[in-house]
Design brief:
The chain is an all-alpha fold and about 625 residues long.
Length: about 625
């Protein structure tokens, strides 16, 4: 490390400039007169002119050369000062006294420093020290030599020279001590700097940071330290990024080993997004995608097989046939699916054609309501084969065909502006740490275009944050967190003044229970009211909404849902209620006109949703 810059030495040795010498060994009277003129002149320019005249008459007049060097030094013309000091020393070396040699060499050493010739300066000071006539002079020269060595970064040599000079001049002990402390501080800084560089080279960034911080605490803000600190910071960032990538890769490996393919895919994609190609990540990602597809396929087969078994137990032969046919299409040797299919077909043969057609129709409409176009197509095709004019089967098949064509269109047909708006909405919510809003926007975006930009990574992050927030809220026991779960439904139900109640009726108590989030107590009160006053039509949708919040589908809840539909009561939750009732009819295997009506209403609702989504896409 170079010598510490920026420190101003406030140490001034009590050394006066050399006195201009009057005596001169010359026989030339004119030279001597001009020398005396130069010594007595006040103006530097006239001094310099006089000394030059003296040298014209005696070219070896050492005193004139020496004093000319001093004059040029006062002018800060160090190049000419150096030249004349050197000439003075070389003119009559054999006749120079030690005192004059010491003076010339000392001044020459100082001038060499000014012109940047540090090695020549060092040599001049060492030679001056050899011919010094007394201890005080040697001490002064040691001080200058120590400073010369210090400025070359040779701290140990400088320290030795200064300690020697301190011994030679007890009167100037404090001056030497101040400089010695400065050199020792520089040595310690150099040690720390070298150690920090070595630590950084060896990859030990923490140790390097500690050493640089120690340097800064010593108030050393030199350029070299700042540069080293920048290098360390850069190295820390690289190391942090490398560790983060390694951690992600390790996490993906664990998820892969555990068969958590969905999570592994998300992690591998995040890894590739941050580092491009990292190790064998592309191959691992492709493998995870294939395994996930296989896992999903197997899960779907299991689900279809279970649905077929359930349909058999419920003697819903058409549903069983559709389920087992789907199983065999994916895996023709899956368990006893073929045997179960034959069993369902035999049982179906014993039923009338009208009943079979009705069942297939119900199955097809239900599948269409779920947007399960594959099962809907299979069921309704069977209807058309058995009775091509049955109800609106041809219209439904045409609708399915149109939906399939829409799904087959490339994702690029979805409005780019709509997608980008959702993306920007998600980014804005993320910036404000509104993770729930970000997750909603990203899930919408993923439905429209799953691989858009970094939506997969952002969605995984948002879901994780929402999950953490949920756990924190649960751990804190925050009773207020009931309201976000209930959403806006209760607000619509319970818009009533809280203050001013004098008589608390059953209806009022029920609403107070709702305000407190006690759904069960509110439901029980409404149930008692309707048991006594079944004509209070407005309470049916209120109780139905509470059941929806409680996810109830028991017999009592189903009766309330059916009452809402039968009485045709206006409610924002009508579509949701209709879907639950329709599903219940399917479970019971009902194919009567009421069940078909409910299913067809559910289908109309699904169509409205499809049309709305289509219009939004166009917008």
């Amino acid at each position: 490390m170079k010598g510490i810059r920026g420190f101003v030495l406030s140490l001034i040795l009590l050394l006066s400039l050399p006195v201009e010498r009057a005596a001169a060994q010359t026989q030339n009277t004119k030279a001597l007169n001009w020398l005396r003129t130069g010594l007595t002149e006040k103006e530097l320019a006239k001094k310099i002119a006089a000394y030059h005249k003296a040298i014209e008459f005696d070219s070896l007049l050492v005193e004139a050369m020496y004093n000319l060097g001093l004059a040029y030094k006062k002018q800060q013309n160090y190049v000419l000062a150096e030249e004349w000091f050197a000439k003075a020393y070389a003119a009559k070396p054999e006749k120079l006294t030690n005192e004059l040699k010491q003076q010339i060499l000392t001044e020459l050493g100082k001038t060499y420093k000014k012109t940047g010739k540090m090695r020549d300066s060092e040599t001049a000071f060492k030679n001056a020290k050899v011919v010094a006539v007394d201890r005080a002079s040697r001490a002064d020269i040691s001080f200058e030599l120590g400073r010369c060595l210090y400025e070359q970064g040779r701290h140990e040599e400088a320290l030795a020279e200064l300690r020697e000079g301190q011994k030679l001049s007890p009167n100037k002990k404090d001056n030497f001590q101040n400089f010695i402390e400065l050199v020792e501080k520089a040595m310690e800084s150099q040690r720390l700097y070298v150690a920090a560089e070595q630590a950084l080279t060896q990859g030990n960034t923490k140790q390097a940071q500690t050493l640089v911080e120690e340097l800064r605490q010593k108030n050393l803000s030199e350029k070299e330290v700042q540069t080293l600190a920048a290098k360390i910071d850069s190295s820390v960032k690289v190391e942090t990024n490398r560790n983060a990538l390694a951690t992600l890769y390790e996490q993906a490996q664990k998820e892969t080993a555990a068969g958590q393919w969905d999570a592994a895919i998300t992690t591998y994609e995040a890894l590739l997004q941050q580092a491009g190609t990292y190790k064998d990540t592309p191959a691992k990602l492709e493998m995870a995608r294939q395994r996930l597809a296989e896992q999903q396929k197997q899960a779907q087969v299991e689900e279809d097989y279970t649905a077929g078994q359930s349909a058999l137990r419920e003697k819903n032969w058409t549903m069983a046939i559709l389920a087992f046919e789907k199983v065999l299409k994916s895996d023709e040797n899956f368990r006893d699916a073929r045997k179960r299919l034959s069993e369902a077909e035999r049982e179906l043969e014993d039923e009338s054609t009208e009943t079979v057609v009705a069942r297939y129709y119900v199955d097809g409409v239900a599948a269409l309501n779920r947007n399960d176009l594959g099962n809907a197509l299979a069921a309704l095709e069977k209807v058309r084969r058995l009775n091509a004019s049955y109800r609106n089967v041809n219209n439904l098949l045409e609708e399915i065909d149109q939906r399939l064509q829409q799904q087959a269109k490339p994702l690029a047909t979805v409005a780019t502006e709509k997608i980008e708006n959702l993306y920007q909405e998600a980014l804005a919510a993320r910036a404000q740490e509104d993770w729930l809003q970000a997750m909603v926007a990203l899930e919408k975006l993923q439905l429209l275009q799953p691989n858009y930009r970094d939506v997969v990574t952002l969605l995984a992050e948002a879901r994780a944050q929402v999950s953490v927030a949920g756990r924190n809220a649960a751990a804190a026991g925050d009773s207020g967190s009931v309201w976000p779960a209930i959403g806006g439904v209760l607000v619509a139900l319970v818009m009533l003044p809280v203050l001013g109640f004098i008589v608390f009726s059953s209806s009022t108590r029920a609403r107070l229970h709702l305000l407190r989030g006690n759904l069960l107590a509110a439901a029980q009160l409404y149930e008692k009211i309707l048991a006594r006053h079944p004509d209070r039509v407005k309470l049916y949708p209120l109780l139905a909404n509470i059941y929806l919040l409680m996810h109830r589908q028991d017999e009592r809840a189903m009766k309330i849902y059916q009452a809402v539909l039968n009485l045709n009561i206006a409610t924002q939750k009508r579509d949701e209620i209709n879907a639950i009732v329709a599903q219940n009819y399917l479970t019971e295997g009902r194919t009567d006109s009421d069940a078909i009506a409910v299913l067809e209403n559910a289908l109309k609702t699904e169509r409205r949703k499809q049309n709305y989504s289509h219009e939004i896409g166009k917008a």
